[in-house]
Request: fold
Amino acid sequence: MFIMKKQLAKSIFKLSGWSYHIEPNILENKQVLIGFEHTSNMDAVLSLALFEILDIKIHTLIKKELFKGPLKPLLEKIGGIPVDRKASKDIVSQMVELFETHESFNLVIAPEGTRAKNGEARKPIRTGFWHIAKAANVPIVMMYANAKTKQGGILGKIYPSDLNQDLQTIQRLYKEKVGLDVCIPESKQ
Reply:
């Protein structure tokens, strides 16, 4: 079901000079996995390699426009779920239904949305991942890819309870554990 074999996945890390670290006992059968920083297309390659090494079947939200033409079979193979970004209100309920109807479901989301260019000011992250995890009653697992140190992995998880407090916790953990600045939106009531 995966598009890479485990040995190839390990070779990708070795040849690229990247390493990874996984906190023990983090992963469950169902979770929303978020990742920072989304700075290049290499993020996707490294993420797919890491999921292969960990034997995790993932799903990820991808703009529906990419599912037209020759990319469609590949996107489906890697667990892509086409999303109409103009109709984003229904995404939470659609994802909750997928969590409810699968024994194991791992949804990967890049809260930054599009890749940030070097030197570009960070925009506040989108909070859809939190709303999906809260509604589906699943944890949020925090992944990272630090291009400066060429290190990536999984640093921890939280169970969603209060949006503002959880965003502050996510921001603090990324800063403390891996030195990444996560720009969160201003408090929401």
In short: The beta strands are 19-22, 30-36, 59-63, 80-83, 105-109, 140-146, 151-158. Helices lie at 6-16, 42-53, 71-77, 91-101, 128-136, 163-178.
